[in-house]
Design goal:
By secondary structure, the protein is an alpha/beta fold. 43% of the residues lie in helices and 19% in strands. Helix 2 packs across helix 3. The relative contact order is 0.13.
């Protein structure tokens, strides 16, 4: 029997992978077929990817807001948020930093940033009104109203309503892993304007060392060099964050900065 490819070489959209996965996980066939049906329905009814993924988030958030942002349990939700926060603290995050979180979700990491930062220094945006309502519930539960966080619904990633050179840290966790390349390109074309001269933008992505592909329109896999090249075309210096790879999370991370 042929040995399975390592995770970064697998093409999850290929028929071979799907047949192998189904044979190894027969209990998941029913849920996958339900996702396929939902995917077709949302594709037919959505004008673009933002509308499509907004519908996905509405469906998932109605069931469980924490699962909607990729956490199978409350304990995992807490752990992944802590991991993101600790990583940025290790990389110099300070209370007076102004943080923009793209795809803030229900504040899995965001509530920790809000608690740590000076009042008014956190700005979270998301395309899903449903998950932002869940974010408000997180604020209430964590008693963080007095920290005056900004939570804003957006239709795209042009960031045109935000001030120039304002944010010292921009953070997007598990956003590009759900985005086609044109959405990533739009973000990179515009984030430089709002990023402070000495600031940085961290984003995670699902990494492949093989063929770039997507599963349905929910999960996208990119080669590192594709995203670094794209960032460089928009005038950034970009580097792969090796120390993030040491942590127990399935995605990879790239940091972009203004060139020196």
């Amino acid at each position: 029997m042929t040995e399975p490819l390592p995770p970064t070489r697998r093409n999850r959209a290929s028929l071979t992978y799907k047949v192998r996965y189904a044979a190894q996980n027969p209990d998941r066939i029913k849920s996958y077929l339900a996702r396929v049906t939902r995917d077709l329905k949302f594709r037919l009814s959505s004008r673009d990817h933002v509308a499509y993924y907004r519908a996905v988030m509405r469906s998932d958030t109605a069931k469980n807001p924490e699962a909607a942002v990729g956490s199978r349990s409350h304990e995992r939700w807490l752990a992944l948020g802590q991991m993101q926060f600790d990583y940025l603290r290790k990389h110099g995050l300070k209370p007076d930093d102004r943080v923009l979180e793209i795809g803030c979700g229900n504040l899995r990491a965001g509530w920790r940033f809000i608690d740590y930062l000076d009042a008014g220094n956190y700005y979270g945006i998301d395309i899903s009104p449903d998950i932002l309502l869940a974010a408000q519930n997180t604020l209430v539960r964590q008693e963080l109203r007095e920290k005056l966080p900004h939570l804003t619904l957006v239709d795209d990633l042009t960031l045109q309503f935000l001030p120039s050179k304002h944010f010292s840290v921009v953070h997007a966790h598990s956003v590009f892993s759900h985005s086609p390349i044109e959405v990533i390109d739009q973000c990179l074309a515009n984030v430089g304007r709002v990023l402070a001269p000495d600031g940085f933008f961290d984003f995670t992505f699902d990494r492949t060392e093989g063929t770039e592909h997507h599963v349905l329109r929910e999960d996208f896999y990119y080669r590192t060099e594709t995203l670094i090249s794209l960032a460089e075309r928009h005038g950034f210096a970009a580097r792969f964050m090796d120390d993030w790879e040491e942590l127990p999370h399935g995605q990879s991370k790239i940091r972009v900065t203004h060139p020196e």
